[in-house]
Input
Amino acid sequence: MRKTLDWIYDAAGYLAAFFVFAIFAIMVIGSAMREMGFRTGGSTEVAAWMTAGAAFFGLAHTFKHGDFVRVGLLLESLNPKMRRAFEVLSLSIATAFVGYMTYAVTVFVYNNYQYHEMAGGLVVIPLWIPQMSLVIGSALLFVAFIDELVLVLMGRIPTYVRAVEERHARGDFSEDV
Output
């Protein structure tokens, strides 16, 4: 199960990176086409949808690799027993919040599907198609939070803490800036 979850988190991270590169390509190609006198209608909408995809698909991967903003200074100053209690508390609150967010986003996108909402710009497609990145990304983040909460409840070190410690052991403090 661990390998499968890690593969899914990594795949979502690669998909987010692909979307970032695609945004770059769309913007550069669109700029070049405008300079040559060609129309580039709809490229802005597609880039906006890809921005949402990049943001939401990258959430779980970012969280699992310790790149989320955390209150590390507070946690690092606590003794191990209190630190574990605060980790459990913060992960429980975050899991509940992300679970609700996933539910709300899913209902929102399902309503757009149910009522046949269409994009209002130059690229007219059903809105639920680009919005699925919100649902999938939120669901993956929810699973990642549950994953970490279970690890901490089992007495293990959270994956994101281990990832940061491994980077620091290599002398890499680039994410701490």
Observations:
- The chain has six helices and no strands.
